[in-house]
Amino acid sequence: MNRGFALFTLLFALSAFFAAPPAYAEKIDIDLSRMSGTVVYAMVNQMVTEPQKFKGKIVNMSGVFSSYYDNETNQRYFGCVISDALACCSQGLAFELKKPHKYPQEYPDEGTEITIRGIFDIRTEEDGVGFPVIRDAEMFR
To answer: How far apart are CA 129 and CA 119, in angstroms?
Structure first.
């Protein structure tokens, strides 16, 4: 066998092995979509009350789509809301999509089941108040 061909074959095989993984294969640090309602509710509550512990983590979450328009800031906020096991209490996280979408045309109806995946962060408003948000999110229905 030709040494050049063998070297080429080896390099080709190694390049495929060490190639960067596709974006959708990124590691999920916290997968809320696989947890029971009670555990999800508790985890989201902790994420809201202690956001610094989760900053930079990749989060996957299933819930219902919600949006809110703030008249003072003239800005619309989007959220993924989950209920606890008894459906008496709800907790949610805001999200910002990776790619811009037009509202309402390119968003689901309020209450539609969605899954979001993105990077947990803390958004600080002009008044210094911060809240947790899933940035660079992808939304699946």
So the answer is: 20
DSSP state of 103: T
Determine the Cα–Cα distance for residues 116 and 49; give it in Å rounded to an integer: 20
CA angle (44 as vertex; 98, 100 as ends), nearest 5? 15
The model's pTM: 0.77
Compute CA distances 9 → 6, 17, 21, whole Å.
5, 12, 21
pLDDT tens readout for residues 104-117: 999 999 999 999 99
The pair of structure tokens assigned to 84 is 């606890």
Domains observed in the chain: 24-140 (2.40.50.140)
The residues pairing with 132 across neighbouring beta strands, listed in sequence order, are: 122
